[in-house]
């Protein structure tokens, strides 16, 4: 059994792992950069190792060396930059360290969206019509005639809403194609792309939580609705997905299990689908890590997903059976982010000057901040997750409204206004919404494009000149940028 874990992620997910490790009598060490000197997770761990010389190209070697010198026996990547990294999983195995996550072969297959689509096809699960394309833009454009417009250009190794473009007409294809390839190379180190038919925005994004061990047992923990998104970034999730028939639930559960079996999965993971108006579902991807939104599933099942991941990584068989898993009530998660909901959702930061979290039945807060903490706009903008549960969706919505009204974060702008607006939205209240609700959010809260561009320019200049109070930027050219500076949400 694992006795000591190096947690190589930050913020609320690092704290999430620390709490479960405490319950399991497992010691914790965290690794962090200078920007997180005063972060909650650094103080909560049994040990903390600060690394100042962050170089992305040698990140894996750095973390392995810290793990060995700290005498840990396992490493937990959470959903930071080392999650879904097959090379890191292999490096851990080579160093005789346990990787708390799936095997590297499963990570590679699911991380390559083209290979993942093939796995779903082999499992006889519907996929969105699409094709792999040539690296030559003009040759690729000829192939688009088979698929038709509108279509999606997607990065084969993309995620988190990046590396994807909707193309409405042939004239826009080549420009969009080159943009996606360049963005993909910068963000993911690979410029391979593929095409998918664009099904529109009046569809739903639904995922299924999977739990597996090293002995071939794979269970599902039900569905989650993830259709409230802004620019393809999830901001609200709920479990179970509302309004499905029992047959639809069963079909989605079985499809997720089939994909997980096909790739030889052996940890916690998520299989994601799109559901159209006619009730047809299509596989889109599998995430080989714990998800930001896992708490809503924990709330309706009573299962600690992190605990089960640790048991699986320890080579222990799941003691649960599918018959042991029961769904009770409803749960909604609101991602509270440091961004200006009325300023084109620009990330921002500063010192937390006032901080009050809601209390009461069914309220859970997974937070990475505290009073006096510094929130940097250079990191992922997620401050905390407000998870609200109730006996049914109606009660959960009422509790959510009260909790959102009670929540206070002062010192910088957040997207709380969006969540408070959403609670009053008729479609959301009725559970009758789809991805098009994201456009409503944009139209309701975003600035006109010219004003948004002006704010972008002013903010960039202010950051460059260190004019924003309470924010420390990486202006020192001799100090490598931390690899934690990225968006984790997906």
TrEMBL record:
<dbReference type="InterPro" id="IPR005481">
    <property type="entry name" value="BC-like_N"/>
</dbReference>
<dbReference type="Pfam" id="PF02786">
    <property type="entry name" value="CPSase_L_D2"/>
</dbReference>
<dbReference type="GO" id="GO:0003989">
    <property type="term" value="F:acetyl-CoA carboxylase activity"/>
</dbReference>
<dbReference type="InterPro" id="IPR016185">
    <property type="entry name" value="PreATP-grasp_dom_sf"/>
</dbReference>
<feature type="domain" description="ATP-grasp">
    <location>
        <begin position="117"/>
        <end position="314"/>
    </location>
</feature>
<dbReference type="InterPro" id="IPR005482">
    <property type="entry name" value="Biotin_COase_C"/>
</dbReference>
<dbReference type="InterPro" id="IPR005479">
    <property type="entry name" value="CPAse_ATP-bd"/>
</dbReference>
<dbReference type="InterPro" id="IPR011764">
    <property type="entry name" value="Biotin_carboxylation_dom"/>
</dbReference>
<dbReference type="GO" id="GO:0046872">
    <property type="term" value="F:metal ion binding"/>
</dbReference>
<dbReference type="InterPro" id="IPR011761">
    <property type="entry name" value="ATP-grasp"/>
</dbReference>
<dbReference type="Pfam" id="PF02785">
    <property type="entry name" value="Biotin_carb_C"/>
</dbReference>
<keyword id="KW-0067">ATP-binding</keyword>
<dbReference type="GO" id="GO:0005524">
    <property type="term" value="F:ATP binding"/>
</dbReference>
<keyword id="KW-0436">Ligase</keyword>
<keyword id="KW-0092">Biotin</keyword>
<dbReference type="Pfam" id="PF00289">
    <property type="entry name" value="Biotin_carb_N"/>
</dbReference>
<feature type="domain" description="Biotin carboxylation">
    <location>
        <begin position="1"/>
        <end position="443"/>
    </location>
</feature>
<dbReference type="InterPro" id="IPR050856">
    <property type="entry name" value="Biotin_carboxylase_complex"/>
</dbReference>
<keyword id="KW-0547">Nucleotide-binding</keyword>
<dbReference type="InterPro" id="IPR011054">
    <property type="entry name" value="Rudment_hybrid_motif"/>
</dbReference>
<protein>
    <submittedName>
        <fullName>Acetyl-coa carboxylase, biotin carboxylase</fullName>
        <ecNumber>6.4.1.2</ecNumber>
    </submittedName>
</protein>
